[in-house]
Amino acid sequence: MPRQNRVDPFGILFRSPARGTIMGNRGGALHNDRGEIVRPFKGQRWIACLLEFKNIRRQVMKPGFYTELFFLDEAASFAAGHRPCAECRRERFNAFRAAWGGMPSAPAMDAELHRARVDASGRKVTFQAPLDSLPDGAFVRIDDSPWLVWGDGLYLWTPAAYERRIPRTNSTVTVLTPAPSVECFRRGYRPAVTSLP
Question: N or C: fewer beta carbons within 10 Å in the chain?
Answer without folding.
Answer: N
